[in-house]
Amino acid sequence: MIDELAGNQELTACSREVCRCTLMGPSRGEVYCSETCRKADEDGIESETCACGHPPCDER
Fold first, then answer.
1. What is the per-residue pLDDT across 6-28, written as a single tens digit (0 to 9) for each?
2. Are 26 and 18 in contact (CB under 8 A)?
3. Where along the chain do its domains lie?
4. 27 vs 3, 17, 58, CA distance in Å?
């Protein structure tokens, strides 16, 4: 799920399907851009939009 490389930092999409955010350095074990996305996935919350509050998702 790697989108691109930026220098030595890998950019990876947030694991929440409806989220448009990317994370830098996923090697640190990060898979979500926020606690909001992690909790929504764990709770099985289905949605057409993401409420993480980050600019890529607010632009929808």
1. 455 678 899 999 999 998 765 56
2. no
3. 2-58
4. 14, 20, 26
